[in-house]
Input
Amino acid sequence: MVVILAIGIFFIAKRRFVLFKRLSKCIREYKTASILSPLFVVMEVVLECMIPFAIIYLGKAIEDGVKMWGVGGELGIGQYALILLAMSILSLMFGALAGAFCAKASAGFAKNLRKDMYYKIQDFSFENIDKFSTSSLVTRMTTDVTNAQFAYMMVVRMAFRCPVMLVFSVVMAFIIGGNLAWIFVAVIPPLAIILLVIMKKAMPLFHRVFKKYDNLNESVQENIKGIRVVKSYVREEHEKNKFDRASDDLCVDFTKAERLLAWSNPVMQFFFYGVLSAVLFIGCYLGIKTGQDMTWEISQIIVYGMQVLMSLMMLSMVFVMITMSIESLRRIDEVLQEESTLHNPENPVYEVADGSIDFDKVDFKYASTAERNVLEDIDLHIKSGETIGIIGGTGSSKTSLVNLVSRLYDVTDGSVKVGGVDVREYDLTALRNQVAVVLQKNVLFSGTIKENLRWGNENATDEELVEACRLAQADEFISTFPQGYDTYIEQGGTNVSGGQKQRLCIARALLKKPKILILDDSTSAVDTKTDALIRKAFKEYIPETTKIIIAQRTSSVEDADRILVMESGKINGIGTHEELLESNMIYREVYYSQNKGGKSDEE
Output
């Protein structure tokens, strides 16, 4: 047993010890349960191993009692029977306690893994999220954590039970059967080698399997998220075929891995029945040769032999579960060890002086390995309280530009300053509290309208909620709801229209009372009249706030103080609406295509 444990532990710990050590920190408040479970397991096993020995003694007592009837034998048999009953009850009780503490420890370990991963993801930058992908993170927090939970349960209970049971059973086998017990010891090395070879070959397959789990989840997520588009274009069959391909691909590799692990069972059965046959053959041979009655010894050695081999079979199950879980543990550890690409400086600035923004020769790309910059040579200075419009074609990097203001990403070269201070010198929370962003993809969470609005300011009064909604032109439609501001919003805001969702998101941003307000194409779903009213309200009620408006319609930005025209990550032109109509071809083409059927006055 020492050999199999040493080889197994060495094989696993060789490259995984640091991984297990790091993840063991997630046990935390469940350390007591994790210690008590194996403790009760050991006590249970000791009693289980003693019971066959007590039965032998009881059998001999019965035999002696029959021979010495009336000389106190009957009283002795009763005492032995009571002891045997007590041992059985205690064994059952210890087993139940071990199971209860094991369940508590494993479930708690899984809970802490999910909690730590979720908290870690909250600190990730967009670059970190892009690295893992949403579907992969979901898989890691569900399937991988479940695998880790099962593995921990096996380790806390079975990994202690099996070796203790094996050691005690072998010792008792030597006590009862003498040299016959060497048969069990002889099979351990070859069995250990076979199990470890199976485990080593299965690991690469499971590595591929969990990557394909990510692909499968991504396919499902994409289909559900775009179900309206799928049905609109009658592409259900296409999506089914795509899912089938991903599912079949996963099934092939998983079948290979499971088929390989399935060899552990017949191997165990082979050694199990081989050892029993050897015990019976050699025991009978020795009995005939020596003329001794070895019935009791053989029967008891078989009992302990079965315990030895059952321990080995359970140990093989532990190895199988650990083999499957190591890849899951590695993937979980990847998330926990990932460090956000954005950090607070040692002595951060907590006060944002004003809403001025300065882009000083900024270059930016999303990954260091990217071949070209997304933004290049951006030199722009915005005064506090100024309204800036940004217009440009799809892929011109309008959103990438404004993402740098709230430091959702860091620049590759150059600097971005807010209030005269480089954004990298600010405390992230302090900076983002003063930069409100209404993203291109509007997101509402399940809950009432009030609860959604208070994401902007959790301490906002009802009067402040109403005021913000009036500025965003949302109060009018909210008042038509029977429950008003207490109306429940379904997950993703599916029970309100796109325009209503956009106005609620704008109101939510206004509640932050920011020094900088960024609207990333956030009025695209509202009509031009409502759009104009929103811009008018901004001009009248929050003139001191710097406003950056990204839009596809020139009407949304034509009354801005200045308008930027973006093209291929560069500033193609900057000026007022009138100046750009005269000097910038891109702006002029967009304007006339939207207002005069695509034909300019010159045409």
